Amino acid sequence: MAKEHRAGSKVRGDKLPAILMANHLLEGDVVFLADGGWTLDPSGAKIAHDAETAAAMEAEGKAAAAANAVVDPYLVPVDLTTTGLPVARHFRDAMRQKGPSVHPDMGKQAEYAPIR
Amino acid sequence: MYRYDEFDERFVRERVAQFRGQVERRLEGSLTEDEFKPLRLKNGLYLQLHAYMLRIAVPYGTLNSRQLRQLAHIAETYDKGYGHFTTRQNLQFNWPKLKDVPDILDLLADVEMHCIQTSGNCIRNVTADQFAGVAKDEVEDPRPTAELLRQWSSLHPEFVWLPRKFKIAVTGAEHDRAAIKVHDIGLKLKRNAAGEVGYEVIVGGGLGRTPMIGKVVRDFLPKEELLAYLEAIMRVYNSEGRRDNKYKARVKILVHETGEEEFRARVEEEYAKLDGPTINAPEEEVERIAAYFAPPAYEDLAEDSATLDGARASDPALDRFVEQNGFAHKQPGYIALTIALKEIGAVPGDMSADQMRAFADIAEKYSFDEFRVTHSQNLVLPHVKKDDLPAVYAALKEAGLASANAGLITDIIACPGLDYCALATAKSIPIAQDIAKTFADPDRQKAIGDLPIKISGCINACGHHHVGAIGILGLEKGGRENYQITIGGDATEHAALGERLGPGIDAGDVPGAIEAVVETYLAEKQGSESFIETVRRTGAEPFKAGFTAFIEARAAAQSEAAE
C-alpha cells in the first residue's frame, strides 16, 4: 500500500513564497489554488507571500478536501521568475507542475504555456 | 491458458459492481478519501504524481491476443495511448480518470481480467517463470501451481488483512528466472530421489529497504500438500508478523528476527495442527486446472529449420536477433522469443496501443495465441515455429518490437521513478535511457555480454536494484537527486545482494560510472566469464577501485573547469 499520507516535499530554509497544490478528485489531475477556485494551469496559481495568506490558503485547501473536490492539498515553496510566475523549489513539485520529464508531450507542459 | 469458470466470472463481475458503487459514493461525498483509499487500492487504483494509476493483474504473466487488444482499446479510449509493463508482470495505465475506472474494470472483465490483488496487504498476483511450459530444464510447468494459488488466495478470509503485502513466485525450472529467493514465498518444483514431484519452499526473501535472501523452510514438500503447508506459513505470519511498524511488517523481518530454525519449527508446529485434507485442493480440481495448461498442438517437426538457417545466413540483423533473443524450446522445431521492450532511448516496459495490436496479431498467428510478460519488463512469444521466424521477425520489426538486446547491458529494468510515482525520491527512467544511449552500439553490447542493470527511484526497490549485476538506487540528498551504484546482485538461483561501490553520484555522472565499471570487468574478465561471474570471482574490490578513479577524475575535471 502506498504511504499513508502524501506529505509535502522536503525543502530547506524559507517556506515562502508558496502555492497550494492538490489532485482533482474526479480527474486525478494536479490542480492549483487560484483566486476564487482551482486551476489546472500552473501559471494561474495564487501565490502566498506572507504566512497569513499561506495559512488561509492551506485552510481553503483542507476545506476543499473535506468537500470532496480535491485530494492531498499541500503548500509548495516556490521561487518567482522575472515575470512573477511560481517555480517549485523542490524537483518533485516541479515535476508535478510540468508532467513527466520522459513525456514532454503529456501533462501540464503539453497543455499550458511553460513557466518562464 | 486458464479460462474462467462461472464462479470466476461471477466473482469478478461482482467486484466491478461493488467498486462502481464505491466510486459513486465517493463522488457524492458519502465516503471520505481516508475511507475510500483502501477500497480503491484493493482494486489496483493508486493516486500518483500527475494522475491516478491503474494496475492490472496479469496472473503469472500469461496473456492472449484478445486481452491485449482490449488493453489497446482501453489505452486509447481512457488513457494516453500506451501501457507500462511492470517488474511484477503486471500492466499499468498512468492516466485514467476516477470516474472512468468502473467502465475500464468492466472492459477488463469482458476479457477475464481484473485489478484484484495488485495492491494492499493481501497475497498479491502470483508470478512465474516466463518460459513456463517451454524450458528444457523444467521439471513441471509452474502455471497450474500459480493458478491454484490464485484461486486459493483470492479473497481467502484469513488473509485479506495481513500485516503487509505478500508476494509469491513459482518456477519449475533448474535455472531460476522468477527470482524466487527474493519473494515472500518462493516455490521451486523439483523431483526427489524417488522421482516424485514436489516443492522446495523458500520463505522470507525480499527487496525494499531491508533486502533479504529467502530461507529454505522445506527442502521437499509433496505436491499435494501445498495449500495446507502454505496456509501454515501464512498463519504463523498473520499471527506473529509485526503490525506496529510497516517497515518491519514483511515476513522477511519475522523470519530474520525469529531465526530460521525457530521459524521453521513454528511452521511445522502449525502445520501439524492443520487438517490437511480439508485444505489441500482435491486431485480432480488440480487436474482440471492443469488441463488448461496442456501443451498446444505442436506440429511434428525436425529440430533444425532450413528456412531459418538460410534466412539467418543472408540477414545479419535476423541472425543477431535470434542469437540474442531466442530461447531453446523443449519441442523440436520451435523456439521461444523474448521481445525486449527496450529500444534504445525508449521507456523500459512501455508499449503503445498500436504496438499492442500488432503484437496481438503476431501472437495469434504465430504463437498459439499466447504470450508472456517477464519481470524484466519484456514480453515472450513462447511457441514460435522456427520456419516462421523470418516472418515473425519482419512483423516485429515493422511494429518497432525487434530490439535484439535481451539480457544485454541496454535491457535495463527501471521503475517509473519520479516521472510518475508518488513515492519516488529520484528519476529512474531517464537514467535507463542515458545508459542505453551510451551503450547503443550493438557490437559494444555484444562484447560486454549479459549484464542486467536494474534501477529503482527509491528504497522500495520496485526496480530490483539490489539484485542487479549493476544496481542503481536513486535518492534525494541535499535537495538533489543522487544515485548509489552497487554490483554483484543476482536474482537467479545464485541469488545475491549487490555491494555498494562508493558514495552516491549525480545523474549526469551515472553513464560514465557504468562505463568505468564495465571497463573494469573487461580488464578483469577471464575466458568467457560473464560480468556477474567475474564479480563473483574477484569480489567488489577492483570495481570499487575503478569507480573511485572515475569519481576522482570527474572531481579533478570539474575543479579545473571551475578555475
For the biggest β-sheet of chain A, the strand order reads 3-2-1-4-5
Beta-strand fraction estimate of chain A? 25-35%
**Overall radius of gyration of chain A:** 13 Å
Biggest interface and which pair forms it?
A-B, 32 and 38 residues
Shape of chain A: globular
Q: Which residue ranges of chain A are poorly predicted, with pLDDT under 50 across at least 5 consecutive positions?
A: 1-6
CATH domain class name of the largest domain in chain B: Alpha Beta
Determine the N-to-C terminus distance of chain A.
37 Å
Instruction: Write the H/E string of chain A, N to C.
Output: EEEHEEHH
Number of helices of chain B: 19
The averaged pLDDT of chain A comes out at 91
Give me the CATH fold name of the largest domain in chain B.
Answer: Sulfite Reductase Hemoprotein, domain 1
Q: Could you estimate the helical fraction of the residues of chain A in percent?
A: 10-25%
What is the overall shape of chain B? globular
Count of individual helical segments of chain A = 3
Distance between the termini of chain B: 66 Å
What's the domain count of chain B?
4
What is the number of E strands of chain B? 20
C-alpha-based Rg of chain B, rounded? 23 Å
Number of domains of chain A: 1
Largest sheet of chain B: 5 strands, antiparallel
